[in-house]
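--- STAGE predict ---
source: upstream dedup step, 1 unique chain passed
mode: sequence only
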Amino acid sequence: MNKPPFDRDRQSAGFSDDAVTVVKDVDTWKSSPTLRTELSPVDPNPEPPTDEGFEERYDLVDVLGEGGMGVVHLCSDHRIGRDVAMKVIREDMGQRASLRARFFREARVQGQLEHPSIVPVYDLGSTGSTAYFTMKRVNGLTLERILAGIRSGDPEMIERYSRRRLLTAFSSVCLAMAYAHSRGVVHRDLKPANIMLGDFGEVIVLDWGLAKLPEVEEPTGGRVLLPASDDPQTKAGSVLGSPGYMPPEQIRGAGSVDFKADIYALGSILFELITFQQMHRGKTVDEIFTSTLMGTAGRPSARAPDRKIPRELDDVCQRTTALDPAERPEARELHEAIERFLDGARDDERRSALANVHAQSAQIALTKSALEDDPERGSAERSRALREVNAALALQPTHQGALATLISLLADPPRHMPPEAQAEIDLILQKDRRHAARNTALAYSGWLMVLPFLLYSGVKSWLAVGLLMGTMFVSVGWALFMSRLPRLETWHGAVGLSLTFLSIAGTTVLFGPFVVLPTLGMMALLVYLMSLRTDAMLRWLVLALGIAAVLGPVALELLGVLPRSITLDAHGLHISPWAVDLNGGMVVFGLVVFHVLVMVVAYQLAVRSVDAFVAAERSLFLHAWQLRQLIPDQAREGRMSQLEPRPDPISSR
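--- STAGE serialize ---
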């Protein structure tokens, strides 16, 4: 069954509670100059003409619903050929002159208020003891039904009726009330049930039965009469208004209730629109009236902090629901304040839409960079993704899609090293290699300290000692040469490595292949591996030359190319150097000094490596921490954990 135009419930609607967060910072209550048309006052003449052709013209089809004073029927108007809504006064109320006069007055007031947001009245009359008036039939949902659907979690309602749409409709209601006030009419019963949102964008203010006209004596006066029941709905002859939306002065029965009463009701409706909660709550009418008279926090943000209500709407609600009527604005001022807020909201929506475009472009560019085989094109796409992310976040700093793409860009390294980054890394490697060459030259120079020791001990083979010292001098010279080159190629390092391990292998003429030589080989191996970084080919060359430096002298002695320097028998291991004479005391002293130096050098290398590792870990941790401060809490989970370094090296210090 259909319901009346002011109370029909359908399920083809929805709502979205997307919050608008960016508004213009303007004076909410400053009215702009407006051209106003001088309008004549409404004539409330309660005597309608009789209609002798009622039954021939109208055919009652169905009951749409019932109001406080009458029943609304769906009728066919045969004279015009259209369906209309007909409100017929209840039989018991039609016998009371005051209520019958109020019924006719409602029709005349509504009919003379010609505004797009007020249902036009087509006809007014009486037949026998029955009074009626016809009006346009409007299809839609009352604001009461919409809010009930949103509160119940109806997904269609939530999707269809966004905050912006509801505020736009509310702004139209404010303008309709500004028009009514300019005609001297006060509605006095504004509430969500009396506001309808039509199927095609109409916004209608319904039920003008309690409208107050200038210089018209009210049927009842003084304090409001409470109904016998606790039903807080408007009832003829009891409450002149609806509890929860009536201002304090209307409840107290003040002598003059003006348009500021409607402003209070509008503020209560606005409060409910943005919080989905009634401003004044109570189980009984007395409790609701007490809340109204005592006053309540008019700031929606205090009642519903999770709704993220902008400050501008907070201020509007607080001002319109002030206990003192003089502090409330006019309806047009309220309309203009809402429109200024919506202008800011529309700007925010445009920024959000543009941010969506940039965020999508960033995600597309990031995907292309991950799939691109060409390093230059991949780097270009990744750079484009960064630019698009920056543009999106500049427009909307909390855009979740852009933040997710930013996290991916930070957490996932590029598939290929960008040419610019590779060039910077090459410069760093060249600097490190020159530095390593200088250190190598200093280390080789230290080997020359062995020469006085050899001369003191006595030389058996000047050829062998000369070759050893010559190799060391060449190694020092080559290292110094490398330290001065603007760019070191791989072959420079290969020559330097060969000279180094050849010199190490030559130490076999001093103590044989098993005393000093393996220790020197291991130290050189570690030093070079730490300084060569990512050069995989030279790493393998270091390992191969180190093994050759140790095994080469052993093989030459076993093959008889070199004299035996090590013998093993029942009495122990004997070292018999064939190139120098060893003095027992000097040998022991030299070996002790040598191994102490090896330990010191190893310690220094280890400390430098650990310090560098800890510094890198700390820097990475601080970098990740700073990034987490820039990203909202809801976006920190998941991918951000990839940016967090292992805490052990830091926490242990």
